[in-house]
Design goal:
Shape: globular
Order of helices and strands: HHEEHHHHHHHHHHHHHH
Strand order of the largest sheet: 1-2
Strand content: under 5%
Number of helices: 16
CATH architecture of the largest domain: Up-down Bundle
Number of strands: 2
Number of domains: 2
CATH topology of the largest domain: Na+/H+ antiporter like fold
Radius of gyration: 24 Å
Low-confidence stretches: 1-10
Length: about 450
């Protein structure tokens, strides 16, 4: 009968592009949803910091937690453990995202990578230059890296508001730009905000990284040894003076992007297991062994990079980043806070510097013949992406915590929040006003 369910459905052939776009779409969906949770925790932190509970709320993050072993002691505030420890996992995922884009994504092809690379470079140089120009000669000039970063979660969430009118090429450009931006922010943290350097502890990190390479070459695929060595690398960086979260980035970039088991091999293993399970073998150990081989082959058919990113990305988006925001975004807001020089410099960097830098270097790259505009989008789309790149939040707050302290840090946070809100609203407004509505379905 015509309405009977189809028992066996033939699938259309899968092209290589499907294997690239699938993870990208999943990534952007998680980021968009995570942005909502991040926003909720940010609002909650601001509400508590400006409520009668403000004193207790802000003081709770200074609670010291740690341990001692003989003469050695690691005792830091709760906020420090979040920013240096928990955020290490965030930076591990950043490293995985960068590796995926460099090996499998938009940044793999120099021609396609030219536009987001130029846009990101302009979006880092112009905000930093404007901030330095406004804060020249002051101690707060050290915060030049604050307006350089783009928050992927909030930026992608803003894109989701514009819906289907945003072409896929613009979404990919924003994601690629933000990832190049992350690379820049990582370099800024490593080079610009390293006050001291303990070469012995840095050597310990190097030894840990070497051990990771060695056990990878030996074929160790269990998670345990890598977790232990990753902790050693993190500890070495933490004690060396280089910010500990750099360990996560390095380990992410070292994660293999190719699978150990090919599709052809897993097909043969599954076929052999099927023969055993449907045959006359009654030996339980043989059947168990075949099922274990299938289990191992299925796990190793996914590249470690994709498997690890798939496991960690939801935790980062829905737990780690909201906790970071809850611990860091709470700042008491007073009448003249928005007029503080640091706050204004950050706002100008994010709202003016970001889109100006993105547009200028993108235009130069296209004029020089190094890049071409995104498919289905003109300069209006690039302008909107430039505005959305001014949503700095997570990485901006992180860098602010490294560069500034006290009242200057609070003022910078207010500037980050204000600049990000203005940039997000401006970007969404440009997308809605300048991009055509999608054609209605027939």
């Amino acid at each position: 009968m015509a309405d009977e369910p189809v028992q066996q459905r033939a699938n259309l052939p899968e092209e290589p592009i499907h294997r690239l776009v699938g993870p990208l779409l999943r990534f952007m969906h998680v980021e968009a949803a995570g942005g909502i949770v991040l926003l909720a925790f940010t609002v909650a932190a601001l509400a508590l910091a400006n409520s009668p509970l403000s004193g207790d709320f802000l003081a709770s993050w200074k609670t010291e937690i740690g341990f001692s072993f003989g003469d050695f002691e690691m005792r830091y505030s709760l906020r420090h453990w979040i920013n240096d420890g928990l955020m290490g996992i965030f930076f591990l995922v950043v490293g995985l995202e960068v590796k995926r884009e460099l090996v499998l994504g938009e940044l793999r092809d120099p021609r396609r990578a030219a536009l987001p690379f130029a846009a990101a470079l302009g979006g880092m140089i112009a905000p930093a230059a404007l901030y330095l120009a406004l804060m020249r000669g002051t101690p707060e000039a050290r915060g030049w890296g604050i307006p350089m970063a783009t928050d992927i979660a909030f930026a992608v969430g803003c894109l989701a508001i514009a819906g289907r009118r945003v072409p896929a090429s613009l979404r990919i450009m924003l994601l690629s730009l933000a990832i190049v931006d992350d690379i820049g922010a990582i370099l800024v943290i490593a080079v610009g905000y390293t006050a001291r350097l303990d070469l012995g502890m840095l050597a310990l990190s190097g030894a840990g990284i070497g051990a990771v390479v060695l056990i990878g070459k030996l074929g160790v695929r269990g998670v345990g040894p890598y977790v232990v060595l990753g902790a050693v690398v993190w500890f070495g960086f933490h004690e060396s003076g280089v910010h500990a979260t750099i360990a996560g980035v390095i380990l992410g970039l070292m994660t293999p992007a190719r699978s150990w088991v090919s599709e052809t091999l897993i097909e043969r293993i599954v076929r052999q297991a099927g023969t055993v399970l449907t045959g006359s073998w009654r030996d339980a150990s043989v059947r168990y062994s075949e099922l274990r081989r299938v289990q191992l082959a299925a796990r190793e058919a996914l590249p470690p990079l994709e498997r690890l990113e798939g496991a960690l990305h939801p935790w980062v988006s829905f737990a780690i980043m909201p906790i970071f925001a809850f611990a860091n975004a709470g700042v008491p807001i007073q009448g003249g806070a928005f007029a503080e020089p640091v706050a204004l410099a950050v706002v100008v960097g994010l709202v003016v510097g970001k889109p100006a830098g993105v547009l200028l270097l993108s235009w130069l790259a296209v004029r020089a013949g190094l890049a071409s505009l995104p498919t289905g989008a003109g300069w209006s789309g690039v302008a909107a992406i430039g505005a959305l790149a001014g949503v700095g939040f997570t990485m901006s707050i992180f860098i602010a915590g490294l560069a500034l302290t006290g009242a200057s840090l609070d003022a910078a946070k207010i500037g980050i929040l204000s600049g990000s809100v203005i940039s997000g609203a401006l970007g969404v407004g440009l997308l809605l006003a300048l991009l055509p509505r999608p054609a209605a379905a027939a």
